[in-house]
Design a protein that fits this description.
The chain contains 13 helices and eight strands. It has about 325 residues and is of the alpha/beta class. The protein is globular, with a radius of gyration of 19 Å.
């Protein structure tokens, strides 16, 4: 085991009243696990810190458990609840110095309001970016209506963590197989596709300094970089990009290890993304901190690269 301290980026909490949104996937978890998860999501001052200390995590970046206000049908209520969430998180972070940082919740129902909330959270609350739970009621953020949001985010120079959510409608190929629709497979397909919409929709060409974070080893996308470059020119369908698709990975898209504790997969991801494009995360409390930290400590790489993945890349990206 190494002694390299760690920063983790996909670590969740539950703000008061947000259980109504989480029910859509929380209810599918076994009841005993639900109780344990609920206790950990609600805790800031004991269980979480004990877990961090036990496993060498110096800082966690906290975000509201999904799907959060992305599932809210009422735009004004979503805007109001995003502010409530962010103020609540700021209050809980404050007593804990540099142990906790925050990602803002944003009501993407209204791109201008989301941009304003992001600026408030970054400039007034000291948050390090945002975490958005995928589409908002079936709307994806390659839509030109979001360009004003992306411009503000680029000006603020903070990342957006694109977190999984259920598809807006049932996917035909998964009909009759609910075990595939969520975390096992469907969330990764949904989130990876959303990220590709941003890429092929030209968002990174219009805003070249944007940084999007994908969890779960990049939802599988890093391992398809070669094929994206190979097939896109043949099936471009009139779409043009300033760069080869693979070049946006590591530049505009970075990834975390959350929920994928496989050394061969990690080494392949570093090979595809570069050693500056992969960051450690746990996905607390939905994944095991012990397993995640043991995996990253034992992975077959130099301590120089391990330090980048565990800590240095996050410090640079988030200006910690």
């Amino acid at each position: 085991m190494t002694t390299i301290k760690k920063i983790a980026l996909e670590e969740h909490f539950m703000a008061p009243g947000f259980q109504e949104y989480t029910a859509m996937f929380f209810d599918k978890i076994e009841s005993a696990d639900q109780r344990e998860l609920a206790a950990r999501l609600d805790d800031f001052d004991q269980l979480r810190l004990e877990e961090m200390d036990r496993h060498g995590i110096e800082t966690v970046v906290l975000s509201q458990s999904g799907p959060s206000v992305q599932a809210e049908a009422d735009t004004q209520r979503a805007i109001r609840r995003a502010r409530e969430n962010n103020d609540y998180l700021a209050d809980r972070i404050a007593p804990h110095g540099d142990r906790f940082a925050g990602f803002a919740t944003l009501a993407m129902q209204d791109p201008a309001a989301a941009a304003d909330e992001l600026e408030y959270a970054v400039r007034e609350l000291g948050f390090k970016g945002s975490l958005v739970n995928g589409h908002t009621n079936g709307v994806y953020y390659d839509d030109p209506a979001y360009d004003a949001f992306w411009e503000r985010m680029q000006d603020l120079d903070v990342p957006l963590y694109l977190h999984p959510i259920n598809p807006w409608k049932e996917v035909d190929s998964m009909r009759g197989h609910p075990e595939l629709a969520g975390a096992v497979w469907g969330w990764g397909v949904e989130t990876g596709t959303h990220a590709l919409r941003l890429l092929f929709g030209g968002v990174f060409d219009r805003f070249p300094n944007l940084k999007i974070i994908l969890g779960h080893m990049g939802e599988g996308l890093p391992f398809m970089r070669w094929r994206f470059d190979s097939r896109f020119p043949v099936y471009a369908q009139g779409v043009t990009l300033e760069r080869a698709p693979s070049e946006y990975f590591g530049r505009n898209i970075v990834i975390t290890t959350s929920g994928v504790c496989s050394a061969p997969t990690l080494m392949a991801a570093i090979g595809e993304m570069g050693e500056d494009g992969v960051l450690f995360s746990v996905d607390y409390p939905y994944e095991s901190t012990e397993l995640a930290t043991r995996f990253i400590d034992d992975a077959p790489m130099s301590d120089e690269v391990r330090a980048k993945v565990c800590r240095d890349n996050a410090k640079r990206l988030l200006k910690l």
